[in-house]
């Protein structure tokens, strides 16, 4: 193609396609909420929000007698509050290059950075995920290690379709090495020659350098439940699915006794199948969604946890309410960092990327969308230095819509 003067439209069209192609986590999560935002053709501002209904649930009647149940629906919201951008300069000579030349030199590196940022923000939603299998700190280096994630998902009635997983580089290569010795030709060939894992155990498997490291809180002391009867009703927590848990026995007066994202279990509180409500053979895991500090004297600390402790009805999450003085266990070693590999159903998380408003006074603005990805490009000409300065912006929001559908996982000794 002959050289041509590049415009904001040409640059934006190239940028949005490259950005979409460089999303890893972003292409595996739910994207349907963008349709709700797309009703505003003039674009959006930071802070715009849509409301999302949480799924309802029911119990099964036994016998012929009608037993009507209330339909209880919680609500949550998704806010597009993440505005990110990259700015660069083109000379007038640059703007007469082929778009392919300029794409490789400038646009592609910029879009890789933005794509990484979107994936980082999505991966950081791990803090909302209560389920964590394996031994923190151990590398996933066998099929048995990897299988712990889908096994836990099956136990918790997560739909088997549209499952994905994202592993850190060390876990990816650890698992890859275990596949090279297989007698299954296609799997061994892909692992050995291409460095590809593909689909394992019904899960599309990806590697990302953006898998975050979670550092466990100080975690010192001998934590216990402070008072029995700390269960709640679904109706009281239906919009947040969080509750306060009163504890004691931590080391006195410590800042950061637990960190957002820490996972705890409580002795005697078992998980239940969310469909059948049958008690499962492992303890219910809870994630702490806000940093917690301990007080003086008896080391008290009030934790904000999810899921809420609900012991009856259609939304039952636990086998029983915690007993007074029940011991609390925290996953991992205090002050230690662990990579947060995740396996998840598409509906566990959501990404909504929407077109930004076209600002008044801007002479040339291009907003392009491709497969749910939106990019805005605005050139600003510096006539004194004969340089075109370009700003490239994206606006999006991320949300853990149903973290029950996700599992963090580590390897085993």
TrEMBL record:
It comes from the Bacteria. InterPro entries: Phage_coat_Gp5. Pfam families: P22_CoatProtein (PF11651). This is P22 coat protein Gp5.
């Amino acid at each position: 193609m002959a050289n041509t003067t590049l415009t904001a439209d040409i640059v934006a069209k190239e940028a949005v396609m490259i950005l979409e192609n460089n999303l890893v986590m972003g292409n595996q999560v739910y994207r349907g909420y963008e349709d709700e935002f797309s009703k505003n053709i003039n674009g959006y501002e930071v802070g715009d929000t849509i409301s999302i209904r949480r799924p309802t649930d029911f119990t099964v009647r036994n016998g012929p007698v009608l037993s009507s149940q209330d339909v209880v629906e919680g609500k949550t919201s998704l806010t597009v509050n993440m505005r990110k951008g990259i700015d660069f300069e083109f000379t007038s000579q640059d703007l007469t290059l082929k778009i392919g030349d300029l794409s490789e030199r400038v646009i592609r590196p910029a879009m890789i950075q933005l794509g990484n940022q979107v994936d980082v923000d999505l991966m950081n939603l791990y803090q909302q995920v209560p389920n964590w299998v394996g031994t923190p700190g151990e590398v996933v280096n066998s099929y048995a290690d990897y299988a712990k994630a889908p096994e836990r998902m099956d136990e918790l009635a997560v739909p088997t379709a549209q499952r994905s997983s994202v592993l850190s580089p060390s876990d990816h290569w650890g698992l890859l090495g275990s596949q090279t010795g297989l007698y299954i030709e296609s799997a061994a060939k892909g692992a050995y020659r291409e460095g590809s894992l593909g689909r394992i155990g019904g899960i599309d498997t990806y590697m990302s350098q953006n898998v975050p490291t979670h550092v466990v809180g100080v975690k010192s002391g001998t934590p216990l439940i402070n008072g029995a009867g700390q269960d709640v009703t679904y109706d009281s927590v239906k919009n947040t699915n969080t509750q306060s848990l009163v504890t004691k026995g931590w080391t006195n007066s410590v800042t950061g006794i637990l960190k957002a994202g820490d996972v705890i279990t409580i002795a005697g509180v078992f998980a239940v199948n969310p469909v059948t409500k049958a008690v499962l053979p492992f303890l219910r895991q809870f994630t702490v969604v806000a940093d917690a500090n301990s007080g003086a004297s008896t080391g008290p600390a009030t934790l904000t946890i999810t899921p809420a402790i609900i012991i009856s009805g259609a939304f039952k999450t636990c086998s029983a309410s915690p007993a007074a003085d029940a011991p609390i266990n925290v996953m991992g070693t205090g002050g230690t960092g662990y990579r947060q590999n995740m396996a998840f159903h598409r509906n566990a998380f959501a990404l909504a990327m929407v077109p930004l408003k076209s600002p008044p006074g801007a002479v040339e603005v291009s907003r392009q969308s491709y497969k749910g990805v939106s990019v805005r490009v605005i050139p600003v000409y510096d006539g004194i230095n004969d340089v075109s300065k370009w700003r490239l912006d994206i606006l999006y929001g991320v949300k853990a819509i149903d973290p029950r559908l996700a599992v963090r996982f580590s390897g085993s000794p």
